[in-house]
Specification:
CATH superfamily of the largest domain: Immunoglobulins
Helix content: 10-25%
Number of strands: 12
Number of domains: 2
Structural class: alpha+beta
CATH class of the largest domain: Mainly Beta
Number of helices: 3
CATH architecture of the largest domain: Sandwich
Strand order of the largest sheet: 1-10-9-5-6
Strand content: 25-35%
Radius of gyration: 22 Å
Length: 195
């Protein structure tokens, strides 16, 4: 039986240290899965070859503490990652929990800072779509951009305008999620006050 109280942060910045606990739990027949006999490994992977992390948990109470050092997160590529915490005892394996987190580029730097583009994929794509719309509106040829597996130079103006609206909606959803993650509430909810 997996445990839903593993509080892996939903947003991780490269070069940050990440610490969380994996509580003990019970197996499908009710026997304890704890650090008395079981070792805990936390795995993180993304959709990039050879990009992964494996962290061995340290005993914490009857469960385990996972410490992902900054030397590990420094190499994390931006994007969506999947994690899985697995308890092992000999050939017996149980998943304690599984989930996802997002890695977002860090503003941290050493020495002379290079260019920093903190836009999401949707924001970058929207920039390409708007450039294509401007070029077409001025009667020019559209440079070729690949978005969603299609080449932008094959889009018609109506399709570009529709894609622009879809990307703008996606960006608004991303911004709402970020405000909620920061504890600033849901900007999509209207507040009414009766007097």
């Amino acid at each position: 039986m997996t445990n839903s109280t593993i509080l892996v942060p939903d947003l991780i910045y490269p070069a940050d240290t990440v610490i969380f606990d994996v509580p003990s739990f019970t197996d499908p027949v009710g026997d304890p899965v704890d650090n008395t006999n079981y070792a805990m490994n936390w795995y993180a992977r993304t959709n990039t070859a050879s990009e992964a992390a494996t962290i061995t948990g340290a005993d914490e109470g009857m469960g385990w503490r996972i410490t992902v050092p900054s030397s590990t997160t420094t190499t994390f590529d931006s994007g969506t990652w999947t994690w899985q915490a697995i308890a092992t005892y000999g050939s017996v394996r149980y998943t304690a929990g599984r989930g996802q987190f997002t890695v977002k580029a860090s503003a941290y730097y050493i020495g002379t800072p290079g260019a920093f583009d903190d836009r999401s994929r949707a924001e970058v794509d929207l920039g390409h779509v708007e450039a294509a719309i401007r070029t077409l509106a001025e009667g020019g040829m559209v440079q070729e951009y690949a978005i969603g597996g299609r080449s932008l130079k094959r889009y018609k103006m109506g399709e570009l305008l529709q894609l622009k609206a879809e990307l703008a909606n996606e960006i608004n959803m991303e911004r709402r999620k970020e405000k909620m993650r920061q504890g600033l509430g849901n900007p999509g909810l209207a507040k009414v006050r009766f007097v």
